[in-house]
Amino acid sequence: MSKIFTTDLNKSKQNQNIKVHELYYSKSCNKTTMSFPKISYQFKTSSFGETLIMSNEMGLCGLAFCDHLGKDTVLADMKARWPKASCEKDTIFSDKEFKAILDQTKQVELCLIGSKLQIHVWKALLKISPGKVTSYTTLAKHIGKPKAVRTVATAIGKNPLCWLIPCHRVLRANGDLGGYHWGLNIKKNMLTYESQINKN
Asked: Which tens digits make up the pLDDT trace of 118-128?
């Protein structure tokens, strides 16, 4: 797959339709004692298969593809990221609203929870434009952690909002796909889709 690596993230800009709210875990924090806003979730169909979407009063707090791991496994995985949160299945978005979110044609508010490093990494991913990619090494250098490529890669793999936070746009330095939590076939399909859209 022919790709042009995004080598200067300092000149890239985040889509202005994405607004981020941040909740941090500190090293001394006991996750099990934290309280969180109620989470509503539903399953929707996207171009990349069955998709779980989760939302709380602060914004979207989960987006994951289900075809590789299965709905039950994905839901359990995403719920575990919000310990002690109350989760209920509900109708959150219409098909039209969901499409607008995926297309980012309207303002989308994201609610992220994680360590400071994880959130730093996830926000850096928002600078990678559709149809472009970068490497794990380049991203690690960009956030000031050039010797922590594996740690950065682990944080990328924990991204709770696939597609909107485009961790699929990060490849190995040699151009190989690397890993993808929701399935490599889905990552390949997303990159192919974006490369074709970028040509039009």
From this structure: 999 999 999 99
Active site residue 167: yes
Q: Using CA atoms, how far apart are residues 161 and 63, in angstroms rounded to an integer?
A: 4
Q: Give me the CATH topology for the region 9-199.
A: Arc Repressor Mutant, subunit A (1.10.10)
pTM attached to this predicted model: 0.89
Per 3-state DSSP, the chain is made up of helix, strand and coil in percentages (nearest 5) of: 35, 25, 40
Distances (CA, A) of 137 to 9, 125, 140, 152, 171: 12, 13, 5, 9, 9
Residues 66, 111, 162, 167: which is the catalytic one? Answer: 167
Domain boundaries, the chain: 9-199
